[in-house]
Fold this protein.
Amino acid sequence: MRPCGPRLAGGNSDGTMRIGITCYPTYGGSGAVATELGIGLAARGHEVHFISYAQPFRLAGFHERVYFHEVELERYPLFETSHYTLALAATIHDTAVRQGLDIVHVHYAIPHATSAWIAREMLDSAPPLVTTLHGTDVTLVGLHPSFRAITRFSIMRSQGITAVSRFLKEVTVRDFEVPEERLCVIPNFVDTELFRPRENAARRRVFAPGGEKIVMHVSNFRPVKRIRDVIDVFAGIRREMPCRLVMVGDGPDRPRAAQRAMERGVERDVVFLGKHASVEELLPCADLFLMTSESESFGLAALEAIACGVPVVGYRAGGLPEVITHGESGLLVPVGDVEEAATAGTCLLGSAELWRRFSEAGRRDAVERFAVARVLPDYEALYRTLV
């Protein structure tokens, strides 16, 4: 998981750098990780400039050495669609010139890497570009015939390329013919001080007034998350013991999930909370976390769960096995096997000793492998090889 190249001096005489970061500001793993990365870099003395069309949802409050530059979108009668890619390129260019950026780090290949490449072409002396691949930018959107060529072009024009899992690196090498040596794997990370086990009996009573076990799921409710499988797995656990399901997030498949809960007769035990910015307040209330994605580039929500001491039951897909150690921090089953997943969940919830062992192992794994202090220096080292 170490980045390519040796550790060298930074862009300034004191070793600090001025770093531009572009990400999607909305709810999602890539935006969360990019924001936490920027906050962490600023805490280590670097100057960080976020560049996006809105303030990232996790960039709350004041952070020293952190700045936000909003991409202005103008509407003209001549144009039927917005030109965000060009507007973003112009803002990256302007920020690089005015702030003297040492590095531009974009999260998601398109359109962010494309915009950053345009910005670099406009500059006489351009800062190096780092592109972090998070998942659907290469596994879904980037593979579309309309976007494959520009996705590969944008990736290859980046001076540094990272993927959040070995799985995603292999997919990128295979599907976009990116030389393996160009890609570094730097995993997602979690703030283990923010995401940690904590007792909150009052909040638990809100979700489970009868003292039932609490099962939780957090996602953007897209088809790849197989939300109806979450309901089916929960219904299987519910047959064996009293429990409640808390669904955090929103997206296109939420109505299907609600319908599925009615079909399975568990609608009274399912709570749809909608989007929630402070997931760290909710996860410690859970006894079990479900992740039924048919493909998961990493599984940040699962990492945040185990950091809170919550065991995970999920599908053995994509990069999730790199995060969840089967038989230690969670139990992984084949994609679509809701019965086996329900059995796994029932097993964990039915044994206090087993649950405690998994809870402690997950928390230990999060701290030892995925804490901010473990992963963030890898990004710093990569930047310094390029500056």
About this structure: The chain has two domains: 18-189+372-386, 201-370. Residues 114 and 124 are 18 Å apart (CA to CA). The longest helix spans residues 352-370.
